[in-house]
Please model this.
Amino acid sequence: MGLADEKYVLFTTFKRDGTAVATPVWSVGIDDTSIGFWTSSGSGKAKRPAHTAKVLVQPCDARGKVRDESTVVEASAEVVTGAQLDLVRAKVEAKYGFVTKIT
Model:
């Protein structure tokens, strides 16, 4: 099972001083090498990649507890807009259904 198949992944970004900030997010597959999620453009997880693209991702539960025997994956993050954002939103809504309307 790949990260795109997970219900939640722990998405860890880094502040300017190097402090890690981890948040569980829903994930969807974008292509063979990319996953996506959506969040408010004002959130830290959207702002921090502007100065540090390095992120860590790892399977977790809704509270951010990583799964035993899971592996941390180092990746790079990119904030997308326009058609790319529309694609991510559509995939999140397709995977998570009605609950996307209430969160």
Notes: The first helix runs from residue 44 to 47. The two ends are 26 Å apart (CA to CA). Helices lie at 44-47, 82-96. Strands lie at 8-14, 20-26, 28-29, 35-36, 54-59, 73-76.
